[in-house]
């Protein structure tokens, strides 16, 4: 009875939230098939906006940047997060302090993170200027002004921020591993490095998949970080799909192309996150059945 009362109490808010979400989503998709420019215009043009989108060099650069950024970001966060979790799991002193330090970057907003790193990477008063003042006058670290290295600066910043949450998830998984199993493997002469590289990772599959979903969502939603750090520059060297959509929607007054880009972003997120979520559920059920 209490369960039904709670459901009835939450129903109005759930209906409104679901209606707004689905309504806005359907409206955005509908606009992507129209000739809308500055303002919505419901003149059906089929896939014309999508053809313009994929013919745009800006969109092509955005997708290439997103692929490079996403690949390095996800792999680096998973590897570094797991390594940090393993190190902390060795019963080190000051574990609480270390966990706080590693997780603190994730508590910062993307805008604050981007601003702080833009100062740190600024050649006028950042790391380059600091090292040069120490006497190393030939030292150069001006990634933000280099079109070839700017996207790597964005990736480095994102990895610094995202590694902590992966570390926490992995550490929670490590604390759930049977200690007796590890002891028996050590008694059998299995090196500790092999335990952490071959035995434990399959056990942490649910945690790895959860991390992948969170990181994939962060890759798609990289707008705030790019704007705060580089504003898409130099030129369009750090342009990403989210920034492309916002620029075409507000600055360029091309609603049709902007909504088409947003639709492709949504489809990409579904294609990437959908199988991961399904795989995580299957892995969780198998793990529960094994227990």
From TrEMBL:
User: Which lineage is the organism of this entry classified under, starting from the top rank?
Assistant: Bacteria, Pseudomonadati, Pseudomonadota, Alphaproteobacteria, Rhodobacterales
One Pfam short name? BPD_transp_1
Where does it live in the cell? Cell membrane
Q: What is this protein called?
A: Sugar ABC transporter permease
PANTHER family, sorted? ABC TRANSPORTER PERMEASE PROTEIN
Where's it mainly located?
Answer: membrane
Protein keywords: Cell membrane, Membrane, Transmembrane, Transmembrane helix, Transport
Q: Which domain of life is it from?
A: Bacteria
Is Hydrolase among this UniProt entry's keywords?
A: no
Query: What is the recorded membrane topology of this protein?
Result: Multi-pass membrane protein
Q: Name one GO cellular component term.
A: plasma membrane
Stored SUPFAM superfamilies: MetI-like
Claim: Transport is one of the keywords in the record? yes
Q: InterPro entries of this UniProt entry?
A: ABC_transporter_permease (IPR051393), MetI-like (IPR000515), MetI-like_sf (IPR035906)
| Span of domain ABC transmembrane type-1 | 63-278
Where do transmembrane segments lie in this chain? 66-88, 100-120, 149-174, 195-220, 255-279
Q: Give any single GO term for biological process.
A: transmembrane transport
State the organism of origin.
Actibacterium mucosum KCTC 23349
Q: Name the family.
A: Belongs to the binding-protein-dependent transport system permease family.
């Amino acid at each position: 009875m209490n369960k039904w009362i709670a459901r009835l109490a939450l129903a109005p808010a759930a209906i409104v939230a679901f209606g707004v979400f689905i309504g806005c989503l359907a409206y955005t998709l509908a606009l992507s098939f129209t000739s809308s420019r500055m303002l919505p215009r419901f003149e059906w043009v089929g896939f014309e906006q999508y053809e313009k989108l994929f013919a745009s060099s800006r969109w092509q650069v955005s997708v290439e940047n997103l692929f490079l950024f996403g690949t390095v970001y996800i792999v680096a966060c998973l590897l570094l997060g797991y390594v940090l979790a393993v190190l902390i799991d060795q019963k080190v002193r000051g574990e609480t302090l270390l966990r706080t330090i590693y997780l603190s970057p994730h508590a910062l907003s993307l805008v604050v993170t981007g601003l702080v790193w833009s100062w740190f990477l600024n050649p006028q008063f950042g790391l380059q200027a600091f090292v040069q003042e120490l006497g190393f006058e030939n030292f150069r670290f001006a990634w933000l002004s280099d079109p070839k290295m700017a996207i790597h600066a964005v990736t480095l910043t994102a990895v610094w921020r995202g590694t902590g949450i992966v570390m926490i998830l992995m550490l929670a998984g490590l604390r759930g591993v049977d200690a007796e199993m590890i002891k028996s493997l050590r008694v059998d002469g299995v090196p500790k490095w092999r335990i952490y590289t071959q035995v434990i990772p399959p056990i942490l599959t649910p945690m790895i998949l959860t991390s992948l979903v969170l990181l994939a969502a962060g890759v798609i939603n990289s707008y705030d970080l790019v704007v705060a750090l580089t504003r898409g520059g130099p030129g369009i060297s750090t342009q990403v799909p989210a920034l492309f959509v916002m620029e075409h929607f507000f600055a360029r007054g091309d609603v049709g192309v902007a909504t088409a880009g947003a639709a492709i972003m949504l489809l990409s997120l579904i294609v990437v996150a959908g199988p991961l979520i399904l795989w995580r559920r299957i892995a969780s059920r198998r793990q529960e059945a094994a227990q």
